[in-house]
Every structure is written in structure tokens, then in C-alpha cells.
Write a structure and sequence with these properties.
The protein is an alpha+beta fold. The chain contains 5 helices and 16 strands. Helix content is 24%, strand content 32%. The strands form 4 sheets. A 6-stranded mixed beta sheet has the order 6-2-3-4-5-7.
Length: 278
């Protein structure tokens, strides 16, 4: 899928206003201290209990919209730590900023992220995050200076599941930052004991200029299987190439799980590479 960034002030502001309105709709408004660079400040935050995230937006920055997200319930926390910022530029483009708004050839507009994750600790950064990111929602962006690169599509701004899709990315960043980076430098065949949730929701794929819309339940099924296996005291993890790995407490591979939509030959054959790696 190919996209281009929104670059005019008018189209960015219009799209950001729509994004802000949709994410705030139905959310609980509270006033809390929010941790940011330079210290804490008291701000209005919007808590979405169904998705389990709060958000805090401001338009006061000179070159970007400041958009912070976190997972702690503001009803039980008076001070909130930021999990991730997704800050679209107000004008033109800036690859140093993690967040951005992009459009495809069908004039659909998406909230996206370059993968630049800050954290203030060794191992927390873009390269490491992209190495461990398991979500399949990638796109190729062509920048105004003709540079092409990969970005992560978070959500269609018009999608009814916008908040769920943004929340899935926030939780994935949270899990990434919690990994023991002193012991893990690159994804391995067996990422013992760590599970990264997949994208859940509605995805659109683009072939022959036709938008094919499908409901993606794969991530939901894998997540439920993981929960059931852990309830039985199994150690469960996943990698980019494998849906679920069941390992012993010593790290030995015990079983592999691949989730497919049918028992057709094509589905079975696409499972074989993951099994062959064992």
C-alpha cells in the first residue's frame, strides 16, 4: 500500500480536528498531572475505559500537534505517565517527528507512525521497536522530496474502530518498553515468555485499484488462545513468523500454533515455513 503525507496546513488541521473530535467523543474528561519533557503539567485528559487508554491533545506547540497517550486509569491515578506520543506536524513534513497523517490514492486518511519511539533508556528507539513490532499494518510512504520509507498505519480516521486501533498501538508500545532490553537485542526464533499482540480490527488492502475490506479477527483469536494457554500455566510467546510458541520453563520449544481461516491447501502451505523453522 502506497501513501503520501498530508502537507498543507488546511488539510492537516481539518483532519486533526476530526481525529481529535472522534477520540474525545464519549470519553471521560478529567484534570490530571501529565508527565512530559521538562516536567509534569496539569492538563485535561480524556479517558476511554472500553479501550483502556487516556489521551491528551494540545495545539500550542509551534510545529506540531502534541498528542500524548497512556494506559493508567485517571480515576485512580492523579499523575499520569505517557506511554507514547503521536504528534502530527502542522505543516509540510518532518521525518524526525513520529506521528503523521497520510492519504492513499482513494482519499482515505490514516493516522500513522514512523516507529520513532522515545523512552530515555538504552535500547528504546526506532530501530529496536521496528525489529520487535509484530503488527502487519505497514505502508510505503513517498515523501515530498521523493524519499520512500516504511511507516506503520495505525487507523483510518473515518473508521468506526478508530479508538480501538489507536489503543492497540499504545498497548504494543507499552509492552515493548517493558521488555528487558539488557537481555534482548534482536528478535529470535524463540522470544521466550513474551507475547506481542497483533493488530485487531478492520483492515483495507489495495489491489488493482480496488479497496477490499475485511474484518481481521486473527489477532483476537491468537490473543484468546494465548490467554487460555497461560491459564494452564504454559509459557507462551510469539514472533513475526509464528503465531504462538509454547515453551518449557527452561526455554525449550514445546509446541507451535498457527492460526488459519480454513484447512485449504494454501492455508496449510503457508503454515509450513513457520513449522520448518523448528
Amino acid at each position: 500500500m502506497d501513501v503520501k503525507p498530508l502537507i498543507t496546513r488546511t488539510e492537516i488541521d481539518r483532519t486533526f480536528s476530526r481525529l481529535e473530535q472522534r477520540l474525545r467523543a464519549g470519553a471521560q474528561k478529567l484534570c490530571r498531572k501529565v508527565g512530559a519533557r521538562g516536567g509534569n503539567s496539569t492538563r485535561n485528559v480524556y479517558w476511554r475505559p472500553v479501550e483502556g487508554i487516556w489521551l491528551c491533545f494540545t495545539r500550542h506547540h509551534a510545529n506540531r500537534y502534541w498528542c500524548a497517550y497512556g494506559t493508567a486509569d485517571p480515576n485512580t491515578h492523579t499523575s499520569l505517565s505517557i506511554t507514547v506520543e503521536i504528534n502530527p506536524p502542522k505543516l509540510d513534513f518532518d521525518r524526525r517527528i513520529g506521528g503523521l497523517l497520510v492519504a492513499d490514492g482513494s482519499d482515505r486518511v490514516f493516522l500513522a507512525h514512523t516507529g520513532r519511539i522515545g523512552g530515555g533508556r538504552k535500547g528504546i528507539g526506532k530501530d529496536t521497536f521496528l525489529d520487535h513490532y509484530a503488527g502487519p499494518t505497514w505502508a510505503t510512504i513517498t515523501w515530498p522530496d521523493d524519499v520512500r520509507s516504511k511507516i506503520i498505519l495505525l487507523a483510518d480516521v473515518a473508521d468506526e474502530r478508530l479508538a480501538e486501533q489507536v489503543a492497540a498501538f499504545v498497548r504494543e508500545v507499552e509492552l515493548f518498553k517493558a521488555l528487558p532490553w539488557a537481555k534482548i537485542s534482536k528478535p529470535s526464533i524463540t522470544n521466550h515468555g513474551y507475547f506481542t499482540p497483533e493488530f485487531e480490527g478492520r483492515r483495507r488492502s489495495f489491489r488493482l485499484n480496488t479497496v477490499v475490506e475485511s474484518v481481521c479477527n486473527h489477532g483476537t483469536v491468537v490473543r484468546h488462545l494465548m490467554t487460555l494457554l497461560e491459564a494452564r500455566r504454559f509459557i507462551v510467546s510469539n514472533t513475526r513468523g509464528r503465531d504462538l510458541e509454547v515453551t518449557t520453563r527452561r526455554g525449550a520449544l514445546h509446541a507451535l500454533v498457527e492460526v488459519k481461516t480454513s484447512a485449504l491447501t494454501t492455508d496449510i502451505s503457508t503454515s509450513i515455513p513457520a513449522l520448518d523453522n523448528s
